[in-house]
Amino acid sequence: MNDMGNGSAAVVLRPGRDIVASTVEGFRVQWKEALASGTASLTVDLSGVAMIDSVGLGLLIATHNTLGKAGGKLRIAHACPDILGLLRTMRLDKHFILEG
Fold first, then answer.
1. End-to-end CA distance of the chain
2. What is the secondary structure of 24-45 as a DSSP string?
3. What are the pLDDT digits (tens) for 38-59?
4. N or C end of the chain: smaller count of CB under 10 Å?
5. Sign of the C-alpha dihedral, residues 100, 1, 87, 95?
6. How many whole angstroms from its chain centre is CA 61?
């Protein structure tokens, strides 16, 4: 987890591996810490992530909902074409900000 800028409330999380049922709990703890710190903008950098299963999608949606309640936004960056296709098929691109 890396802060962006000096004093801003933006955080970048880099899982670096697939976000699936067997790995989600570790991510959930890390992401909750970021949200508890008052983060207004959270970017999940999906570099190195080839797969997200339904549990991983649930984590992204829950994170989006928590940020939304606080007036924040969830950004997804560097997703591979397969994950981008999944997010668009599920119309999550209407809720998350997708970045190249």
1. 19
2. HHHHHHHHHHHHHTT-SEEEEE
3. 778 899 999 999 999 999 999 9
4. C
5. negative
6. 8
State the average pLDDT over residues 24-30.
91
In a 3-state reduction of DSSP, which class is residue 100? Answer: coil
- SS3 of residue 94 by DSSP: helix
Question: Cβ neighbours of residue 28 under 8 Å, at least 6 residues apart?
Answer: 59
- Find all residues with CB under 8 Å of 10, minimum gap 6, and list them: 3, 4, 39, 40, 41, 42, 43
Band of the pLDDT at 17, cuts 50, 70, 90?
very high
Residues whose CB is less than 8 angstroms from the CB of residue 99 and which lie 6 or more positions away in sequence, other chains included: 43, 75, 76, 77, 78
Cα separation, 97 vs 95, whole angstroms: 7
Supply φ then ψ for residue 95, to 5 degrees: -115, -40
